[in-house]
Amino acid sequence: MKYDPIKLRLSAFLKNSPPLKILFFNVLRTLFLREWYIRRAIRSIFPQLKPRRILDAGMGFGQYSYFMAINQPTAQLDAVDLNEDHIRSFSEFTRKLNLPVTVSKADLTKFTSPDSYDFILCVDVMEHIEEDRKVLANFYTSLKKGGQVLISTPSDQGGSDHDHDEHGTGFIEEHARDGYSPEDMREKLETAGFRVDSIRFTYGTFGKISWKLAIKYPILILNIWMGLILLLPVYYLITFIPILILHQMDTAIRWKTGTGLLVHATKP
Known about the structure:
single chain; 268 residues; alpha/beta; Rossmann fold; 7-stranded mixed sheet; 9 helices; globular
């Protein structure tokens, strides 16, 4: 079961059309449970922090950079990634919309900008990097005193994006690790110098179900044949309301375990 080829095809299709990309971002915002968690956390953090400079560390499609640029329009936002297709596409998107976003290529194990950022967002990146301690140390160096980092990553309880099939092959195959335990993440952050403010499990019981309904099963369909995308409107017509209910229920509960982690930490 392949996830990244679908993402790459979508990125190629959307790269020249800002309206379609914004529509796509709204679809991601609705269907991906992690977006519910991250956007809620950002809305909680930004009013008090009032960040003037933000780093989106591993921007992917750029949906979080776009969200933060719209919600914090006076901030300068740096969006970095290693994927050159994503960089070209999102750079063109921000240029056409005249957003205060600088898009560039960066290796997070080497990237530092000392005492520059008030806020760093890192979504579904840490699990891909062997030298994760180096990345956290670079985040610490790059933050101003009092700056904050928000990290979303799979947990070691079977991360939602690392759902194994019967052949033992991951839904996303390029992970350096299956995920983190809260204890592991806390130790690595504190070793880097951070004060850990909160570590929350995401994708609890309801989230595991919504992940399959909203993402896994549609991707399985598209892996059979992209032409089956024509069936997805009917599929989502049936599943849309249950997905929304499951998302709302999952974000309302403080889970004792889950397949994702949402981590908030501060540079003292």
